[in-house]
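FIELD: query
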Amino acid sequence: MKNIGLLGGSFDPPHKGHLYISLEAKKILKLDEIWWLVTPQNPLKINKPASYSERLRNCKSIVRNQPIKIKEIEKKINSKYSYQTIKYINNHYKNLNFFWLMGADNLINFHKWQNAHRIFNEIPIVVFRRYGYNDKALKSNIANFYKNFRINSKNIRVSSFNKTPAWTIIQNKEIKISSTEIRKQREQLRYKISSSSTLTDKIFSILDDAKAEDIKIIDLRNKSSVADYFVISTCRSSRHADATADDLSRKLKKLGFKNPSPEGRPKCDWVIVDAGSVIVHLFKKEIRELYNLEQLWEVNFESEKSKLAY
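FIELD: result
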């Protein structure tokens, strides 16, 4: 039976603390997988909170090449509380064992969570130390209430949690990430998102110079977590699509994109170039008509094109 670690939150933004907890949990408990549960609501009291699609996309970006899966379970079941999510997961995935992961800062006010005691009786809790919060966490209401159910973290393994309630504090190297660092990262991510429309302008210009035809911009913001925009264009032939993809990739690298390698070769009837927040599709005419991405996303093309002021 697989053992899964669950890390829930708004992830606005996802940061190194989230990654650290996830990777440490996998290593120490020898978990098979880590799932991040991104809540649709953003409870943080911040200026201009990121949308759900933006937070989801940022999570997928930061866990790239990491053994972490991003799950949209809370959106699927319209969950507003962690207990509701945990109850659903335990009932829906009966062939899996789950462990709730969190930082010590969350333990301090855990008794205020909806159905806090039910959570403790529903799933094992694994807490990770965080600089500046550990003493308060150990003196917290919930830690005191369940002090007789705390498991020594030395030589701990999943079999240590043979029944609930059961919880532990891992004696990990303390997570040091300040509120200032989190705010700074949030602003950097927001700038990256806002710059997507500028990138579409540059891509439009590159494709136009390469004689690509019928260039369309599809705004995916608040519609999909795949990207902010699709840029779709028609090429006269497979050779034209191949050459245009090369030209676009070369110029994107000059803009700082590390690996914008074209996909869809050697056939080149549909070539995709991934520029992060913008994904470019280069079609032969008949293939574009066959798949008709424009109709799929139901976009008002004239409106989208006017946004470019081109």
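FIELD: remark
The domain at 195-307 is CATH 3.30.460.10 (Beta Polymerase; domain 2).
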